[in-house]
Amino acid sequence: YFTIGAKGGGDNVNIDGGGADEDISGGYIGGALTGYVMPNLAIQGDVLFTGADDFLGSDENLDTTTFTIGAEYLVSEMVPISIFGAYSFGNTEFAGEDVDTDMWMIGARFYFGAAGPTLVDKHRNGTLGWIGRTSATSFMGP
User: Which of 48, 1, 57 is nearest to 25 (CA)?
Assistant: First the structure.
């Protein structure tokens, strides 16, 4: 009835050109819990934290935390199209400033390939979905 997901990683970006020579490093960590009310209805909550140290040489860290709740419904097992909706709350901290964002999403998703007839099958045996997204705007995925 449940799927648990976790992800994490790091990165390093070097900007060298046009008079700039910056080295930016950071990382991300997140977790998600998906509950299947029915085989074709998923409700997911997730949290994602991203951070960059000494952002653009400012001696300040850039930190973003995003909380998302969403749902996805596979309309028909014969036609692999689902509808989804999600709400995300994000908080970004940089140079002593705190910025909050709210984002509402609604859309349709078409599943290519034969990952299985139900939404549970498509989520567990198909694409990487939420696990494969690394941005702070990560939302309910297949």
Answer: 57
From its phi and psi, is residue 141 left (phi > 0), alpha (psi between -120 and 50) or beta?
Answer: beta
Longest dimension (CA), the chain: 57
Query: Distance between alpha carbon 110 and the CA centroid of its chain, in Å?
Result: 18
The Cα 13–Cα 6 span in angstroms is 24
- Listed in sequence order, the residues at least 6 apart from 58 whose beta carbon sits closer than 8 Å to its beta carbon are 95
Specify the pTM: 0.77
Is pLDDT of 106 > 80?
yes
Helix (H) / strand (E) containing 121: helix 119-125
| Stretch 116-120: mean pLDDT | 87
Give tens-digit pLDDT for 127-141. Answer: 666 655 555 444 333
What letter would DSSP give residue 136?
Answer: T
Pairing of strands 81-94, 62-74: antiparallel
Q: Cα angle vertex 8, ends 104, 22, to 5°?
A: 90
